[in-house]
Design brief:
- It is a single chain.
- The protein has six helices and nine strands; from the N terminus they run βαααββαβββαβαββ.
- The two termini are 30 Å apart.
- By secondary structure, it is of the alpha+beta class.
Length: 186
């Protein structure tokens, strides 16, 4: 299967991101499938995806038919209040250290969510999406920072394999979270 990486630029792209997000959302799949395949937590809307794209490019993977089969959302810190479920993550970021300095002292963007269609997994697409994102965001950025639920070992291991490192851990009322960072200057 031939896959092309691109930047989401049409309403169709954003709607297909939302479709793929819904298919892999923790509320839509069984616990067994979550453990086997991984899952996503945040829920976006068309308007928030379009707003995110005004700040930073949103990288997508397209199959031969032009359908979105993967995405990596990049979120500017200015949007911290636009997705209410992510506010606690941003609060933790403000007190998190990376290499002995507060994270906010680094120019970073947030990995707003990454997802790959079941049929396209095992091809290194997660890494390709992140690498492409690091190439298309403005050059001032040094880090991509995000969080992964500790029980989402599929996602956590994929992120660690590609170069992310755990820089903080916290718990909210429902989950334990691993805050992870990728220094893509290296």
């Amino acid at each position: 299967m031939s896959i092309v990486l691109d930047i989401a630029s049409t309403e169709r792209h954003f709607l297909e991101i939302l479709r793929l997000q819904k298919q892999n959302h923790h509320s839509e799949i069984t616990d067994a499938e979550q453990a086997k395949q991984g899952f996503v937590f945040a829920e976006h809307t068309l308007s928030i995806l379009q707003k995110m794209a005004e700040y930073l490019p949103q990288v997508i993977a397209l199959n031969e038919a032009g359908q979105v089969v993967g995405y990596n959302l990049a979120m500017h810190v200015a949007l911290r209040d636009d997705v209410p479920s992510l506010v606690p993550m941003f609060d933790i970021f403000s007190e998190t250290l990376y290499q002995g300095r507060l994270l906010k002292q680094y120019p970073f963007f947030v990995g707003g969510q990454v997802c790959v269609d079941h049929a396209c997994r095992g091809q290194g697409l997660l890494k390709k999406l992140y690498v492409k994102t690091s190439q298309v965001v403005p050059s001032k950025y040094q880090l991509c920072v995000t969080e992964v639920a500790a029980r989402n070992t599929i996602s956590l291991n994929a992120h660690l394999k590609m170069g992310f490192e755990i820089i903080n851990t916290y718990e909210d009322a429902n989950e334990q979270w691993q805050v992870i960072a990728w220094d893509f200057r290296e």
